[in-house]
Amino acid sequence: MNLFPAIDVIEGCAVRLIKGDYAQKTIYSTNPVEVAKGFHKAGATYLHVVDLEGAKSGDTPNLETIRKIVAESGLLVEVGGGIRSEEVIKRYLDAGVFRVILGTAAVSDPVFLQEMIDKYGDKIAVGVDVKDGFVAIKGWTELSQESCFDFCQKVQNMGVKTIICTDISKDGLLAGTNLELYKELSEKFSVDIVASGGVTTIDDVKTLAEMNLYGAILGKALYTGNIDLAEAVALTKEA
What is the pTM of this model? Predict the structure, then answer.
């Protein structure tokens, strides 16, 4: 299983939110590039970056920070947060990002999603953010009418290769992850599934790795010291 340490960016700083609530924000570093370098030093290969301002605006306000992370960290960087146009996709890919994540746009504009999959292939992943069984959109501020499993089936049929699934109710709480959800997703679908939200302990990492998931995102637990990244990387290499 691949580990994706996470950096959420607001105004060039590495932050974490609780359940996606911008009012519940903790700034962990004013230098995300150094944070990313630390992840690389601990043995990470990948990095998951979310532009939280972009998630609201649909633009790329932290593009220069992300460009610097790509250039200096030594990590393969995937980016999500308000990617709703081909122009923004191109901007990130031109900056050296290896994969972009479509969330709201994947739900609200399936024609656009299909066009981008056809054009960019596995450089397009879909973020499925789940609340009460339904897919949330617009920075988790609205619920769509799409159920999690129906939507995953639809995007798999469209040719998406990677789904990043976040249980919003678990995100940022350090109270454990939704193991049942990821088990069901891994059994139902053939795409690469990345678990996100509430991965709190090294045991969570071990259990997810035993499910043969493609990946797991580690967020707040890294910043609080609940999970040692080097230990988690070693564990997933053994699994």
Answer: 0.94
